[in-house]
Amino acid sequence: MRTLLMIPLCALLALPGMGKAAEPMGAEEFDSYTRGKTLFYGFDGTAYGVERYLPNRRVIWSFLDGRCQEGHWYQQADQICFLYEDRNDPQCWRFSLTPNGLSARFQNDPEATELYEAEDIGEEMICLGPDVGV
Fold this sequence. Notes:
By secondary structure, this protein is mainly β. The protein has two helices and eight strands, in the order H-H-E-E-E-E-E-E-E-E. It has helices at residues 2-13, 27-34, and strands at 38-43, 46-54, 58-62, 68-76, 79-84, 91-98, 101-106, 114-117. It has an eight-stranded antiparallel β-barrel with strand order 1-2-3-4-5-6-7-8. Strand 1 and strand 2 (46-54) form a beta hairpin. The N and C termini lie far apart (30 Å). The relative contact order is 0.23. Residues 1-19 have low confidence and may be disordered.
């Protein structure tokens, strides 16, 4: 799956205007854009993760390793913050809508991680069950 993401992500990152700052999305715009979708994200030309956006601002996140984390999101100032079941600290991002999809900058820090929405690659989000063993 990671190899399949490389081509669309590299093409996406090479498009003009991707580095320009856009207006941050508020809760209503973010919810309208994401609700009911499963979005794949890339970072620096490689696959980063996938998130499914459910009703009532609920989400399921995976780093593409089959382990999924349930959570929810809320708006705080100009950021969208996520709280996941395995963490007590919110993960806040500044989302902007570009001509090529979402752009997300971690905690609105110019030096921090910036993710880009990848094209629909026809892959499913895979969530494996809990670890089972003897």
